[in-house]
Amino acid sequence: MGDKSQIQIFKAMENPGFYPHPVHRIEKRETHISKVFLTGEYVYKIKKPLDLGFLDFSTLEKRRFYCDREISLNRRLAHDIYLEVVAITLKNGDYGLDKEGRTVEYAVRMRQLPDDRSLQRMIKAGEINKNNMIELGRKLARFYLQAPESEGLEAGDAWRNVLDACEENFRQTKSFRDTLLDRETWETVQGATISFLKTHRSHFIHRFNAGKFRDCHGDLRTGHVYFTDKGIQIIDCIEFNDRLRHIDVINDLAFLLMDLDFHGEQALGNCLLNEFLEQTDDTNAILMMAFYKCYRAFVRCKINCIFLASNDLQPGEREKARRHALKYLDLSCQYAIQFSRPRIWVLCGMPATGKSTIAGALARILEIEPIRSDLVRKELFGLKPHERGGVNFGEKIYAPSAGSLTYGKLLCLAQEEIENGKSVILDATFSRAKHREDLVRLAKDKGIKPVFIECTAAEETVKERLQKRRSAPSVSDARLEHFDELKARYEPFIGDENARHIMVDTTLPLDACIRRILIRAFGKENKNQAKGGKDV
Predict the structure, then answer these.
(1) How far apart are the first and last CA of the chain?
(2) What is the pLDDT of residue 362?
(3) If we measure between CA atoms, which residue out of 279, 148, 286 comes closest to residue 213?
(4) Which of 207, 402, 433, 466 could form a disulfide with 212 if both were Cys (CB 3.0 to 4.6 A apart)?
(5) Beta bridge partners of 37
(6) Which residues share a beta bridge with 108?
(7) DSSP for 190-258?
(8) Which whole-number Å values give the CA distances from 210 to 204, 215, 282, 458, 525, in the listed order?
(9) Which fold has domain 3-112?
(10) What is the DSSP letter of 503?
(11) What is the pTM (predicted TM-score) of this model?
(12) Residue 491: which of 437, 411, 417 has the closest Cα?
């Protein structure tokens, strides 16, 4: 069946009398691969006769097959919404729905969900809150934990599928590179994406071997999530290409988180991600987040480009698709820059606030050996790690000149790692604003925005920790009797647009601290973070 025949069917479906149930109003919607008719109580979705490489609906038999697949797969996350496949017939020149005659098309029949209950609409109306995101995070966590692992795949195949999908995206948008899209931005995304895939192949294989590649949703975005009286309903998973659905769970979730970023709702995304990670204990997933967000944003860029190539768009639809294609490309580039550059992590704060504990936990996840100022200082002055460098602060190895020497050495070590393309963790008090400013200048010269993680704890807690150092060995020489002096010399942070500043209360459980730090550090920066506001 060709396009002309399908157009005739669509025209028949605009008539309320076409349907076997009362219809007072018909609303039409269209994507690049389907046509949808909303009749009030039911929705009818028809697949276009397309072969786009990543999907093939070119024959009636294939469209019937994928209609059945759509129903069975979507019933995993949507209860009593996907009802059945219905035949569209032709007899004596008249089209009918499940009537006698020759079957010329198939449609998926669904219950119609209220538009105003979609996550996308509720965001615009200001009706979504933290509790909604927690509920959604729990539902998705359960889904991913219960979803079957991808069978018939080898670890290398899982990586290859991601690479193939990315390369396909670039091939299919290449013709738009010099007409609609900005060539330099497109090439930045392409270069960063392919480089990451080839450099970090082991990350994908590790995720696959850990059972993180599962039968997911594949098209998880705000327009497909509904908050109804019967609970959360999630519709429109990918049924047309198993390769695009058998993916890393964080790849699946990244689509929704990217979509929230697109709508300016990073805080909601952070809340959702935090709940998901707490339920799944999959903190390492954050290391892949920016890459997968980049991939997902570029997919949406591609979809809008393909949509623009259609000849039957209205002027308003055409302008919206053009605007969205450019916005998604720009967002994709922001993510690409984020995952393609090394990072400077700075664990700072008063002594005994838990800097080294947090640094150690981050080091295990990021696979970076921390550079600890206490060790650097003692090495500079020929002391062993647990050898005391002086009873009084401000003297000997803690004299101002010694401090300048120590922080100068820290900067040199950080610069060396960055120039080798490696990220670095610095574990140091950084009590003086000048030392922070020096680091920010170094990072800015390298095109990097350092992440200052300022560790805090209640004063009594800090004193208790310092007191325990009397009997327990510690590389740090700070003791309880130094507390007042250390507090007096600690200069507060001032917001700097060239750095991220995250405050964390280390009396919280360690895994909660690490989870929240990583979410904010790897997330799209919001205004509060840019001003140096408190994140945790």
Answers:
(1) 58
(2) 96
(3) 148
(4) 207
(5) 28, 44
(6) 45, 85
(7) HHHHHHHHHH-HHHHHHHHHTT-EEE--S---GGGEEEETTEEEE-----S-GGGTEEEHHHHHHHHHH
(8) 10, 15, 10, 38, 30
(9) Phosphorylase Kinase; domain 1 (3.30.200)
(10) E
(11) 0.87
(12) 437
Mean pLDDT of 80-104: 94
| Run of H or E including 520 | helix 510-522
What phi, psi does 228 have (nearest 5°)? -115, 175
What is the DSSP pairing of strand 231-234 with strand 34-38? unpaired
Class of domain 344-530: alpha beta
More confident residue, 532 or 368: 368
**Averaged pLDDT score across all residues of the chain:** 91
Show the tokens assigned to 536. 């945790």
Residues 439-466: b if buried by 16+ CB within 10 A, e if exposed:
bbebbeeeebbbbbbbbbbeeebbeebb
Q: Is pLDDT above 80 for 490?
A: yes
Spatial distance between the Cα atoms of 231 and 228, rounded to a whole number of angstroms: 5
pLDDT score for 476: 80
Higher pLDDT, 534 or 211: 211
According to DSSP, the β-strands at 42-47 and 102-111 are antiparallel
More confident residue, 312 or 72: 72
**Is 409 within 8 Å of 435 (Cβ atoms)?**
no
Half-sphere exposure of 253 (CA within 13 A, CB side): 33
Q: Which amino acid is at 274?
A: N
Query: In sequence order, what are the beta bridge partners of 451?
Result: 345, 500
What number of H helices and E strands is found in the chain? 19, 15
- Mean pLDDT, residues 142-151: 93
- Banded pLDDT at 193 (limits 50, 70, 90): very high
Sequence-ordered list of residues with C-beta below 8 angstroms from that of 535, at least 6 positions apart, any chain: 501, 502, 503, 504, 516, 520, 528, 529
The pLDDT of residue 534 is 38
Of 402, 430, 401, 425, nearest in space to 492 by CA: 430
Pair 97, 18: CB distance under 8 Å:
yes
Look up residue 325 and give its two tokens: 């294609």
Alpha helices in 233-372 (DSSP H): 249-262, 266-280, 289-308, 315-340, 355-366
**Lookup result for tokens 């009749």:** 39
Hey, which bits of 463-513 come out as E strands?
Answer: 500-505
Are the CB atoms for 387 and 378 separated by under 8 Å? yes
- Residue 527 burial (CB < 10 Å; 0-12/13-18/19+)? exposed
Is residue 33 within 8 A of residue 48, CB to CB? The reply is yes
Q: How confident is the model at residue 307 (pLDDT cuts 50, 70, 90)?
A: confident
Q: Where are the domains of the chain?
A: 3-112, 117-340, 344-530
Q: What is the dihedral of CA 73, 78, 79, 83, to 10 degrees?
A: -60
The residue behind tokens 């200082």 is 377
Gap between the Cα atoms of 252 and 246, Å rounded? 9
Would you say residue 147 has pLDDT above 90?
Answer: yes
- CATH classification of 117-340 is 3.90.1200.10, yes or no? yes
